[in-house]
Automatic annotation (TrEMBL):
Alphabetically ordered keywords of this record: ATP-binding, Cell membrane, Membrane, Nucleotide-binding, Translocase, Transport
Species this protein is from: Salinibacillus kushneri
Protein name as catalogued: Energy-coupling factor transport system ATP-binding protein
Subcellular location: Cell membrane
ABC transporter domain location: 4-236
C-alpha cells in the first residue's frame, strides 16, 4: 500500500507569514479529497508532497522515505500532479507528443511510452486526437489530456488539482471511472476540490484546510454532515445534505441514493 506521512509540516514563503502550520496527516489507501477556501493552503500542501517546494519545518515520508532524500525528477516517478490549469502543463504541438513526454522523461523506451500514452488517452476517450494540436481542443478536453499525461507515467500516487472545473456530466463520469480504477490498482489518489458534491460522492476521506491548518479530517460522509464546522471554513454542504437538512432528516447524506433511501424509509 502506498502511503504519505506528514509530521509537523510548516511552510512559509516569507518569514512573516506562515502558509501552513504544524500539519500532521497520514495518507494511505483511501481516496482523499482536500477542500477549503482559496488561500487555505491546499495547493501549497500538494506542491510540498510533490517536491516542488521544500518544508520550512517538519518532514514528509513517502512510503517511509523522507522526500528530502528524493530529487524532483525521482519524485516524478512516484507522484503525478495534474495541474488545475492544463495550459500550465501542456506545451507540445500534438496530443500524443504531449502525453508521451512524461513516460519518455522518466526512462521508458519510445514503444512502451507510446503504448502507455494511447492506453491513457483511451481512458479519457481522446484517442482519436493523437496528431491534433492540444490547443485546437476545448479547455475540458485539454484538462483530460493533462490527466492522460500523468496516467501514462503510471505513478503510485496521483494528485488532481480541481479536475472537475469546466467538466460536463460526461467528463465527471470519466473522472470517477479513472479515480476508482486507480484506487483498485492500489494507488493513492488525492484531489483538491471546490466541488463538494463530487467530493462527497467519490472520495472516501476528506481533509478540510482552513487558514493553513487542518480544521477536520475523516470519512467524507461524516465530514459533510458537520454543517457548523464546514461553515467555519466557509464551505457549504453537498446539495443532498442541504436538502436532507431542509427536510429535517437526521444522519449523513453523500449521494442521491442516500437521500432517496431515507425518503423511502420515512
Amino acid at each position: 500500500m502506498n502511503s504519505i506521512e506528514v509530521t509537523n509540516l510548516s511552510f512559509s514563503y516569507t518569514p512573516e507569514i506562515d502558509v501552513l502550520k504544524g500539519i500532521h496527516l497520514k495518507l494511505d489507501g483511501e481516496t482523499t479529497a482536500i477542500v477549503g477556501q482559496n488561500g487555505a493552503g491546499k495547493s501549497t500542501f500538494v506542491k510540498l508532497l510533490k517536491g516542488l517546494l521544500r518544508p520550512t519545518e517538519g518532514e514528509i515520508l513517502l512510503n517511509g522515505k523522507n522526500t528530502k532524500d528524493y530529487t524532483v525528477a525521482s519524485l516524478a516517478k512516484e507522484i503525478g500532479l495534474v495541474f488545475q490549469n492544463p495550459n500550465d502543463q501542456i506545451f507540445k504541438n500534438t496530443v500524443i507528443g504531449e502525453v508521451m513526454f512524461g513516460p519518455l522523461n522518466i526512462g521508458q523506451d519510445e514503444q512502451k511510452a507510446k503504448e502507455k500514452s494511447i492506453e491513457a488517452l483511451e481512458k479519457v476517450h481522446l484517442e482519436k486526437y493523437l496528431e491534433t494540436n492540444p490547443y485546437d481542443l476545448s479547455l475540458s478536453e485539454r484538462k483530460l489530456i493533462a490527466i492522460a499525461s500523468i496516467l501514462s507515467m503510471d505513478p503510485n500516487i496521483v494528485i488532481f488539482d480541481e479536475p472537475t472545473m469546466g467538466q460536463d456530466y460526461a467528463g465527471k463520469e470519466t473522472l470517477k471511472e479513472i479515480i476508482f480504477e486507480l484506487r483498485n490498482q492500489g494507488k493513492l489518489v488525492l484531489c483538491i476540490l471546490h466541488d463538494m458534491d463530487f467530493a462527497a460522492e467519490v472520495f472516501e476521506r476528506t481533509i478540510v484546510f482552513n487558514q493553513g491548518k487542518v480544521l477536520i479530517e475523516g470519512p467524507s460522509r461524516d465530514i459533510f454532515a458537520q454543517k457548523e464546522i464546514l461553515e467555519q471554513a466557509y464551505l457549504e454542504q453537498p446539495y443532498v445534505a442541504q436538502i436532507a437538512d431542509e427536510l429535517g432528516l437526521k444522519g449523513s447524506y453523500a449521494t442521491d441514493e442516500d437521500l432517496l433511501r431515507a425518503l423511502k424509509e420515512e
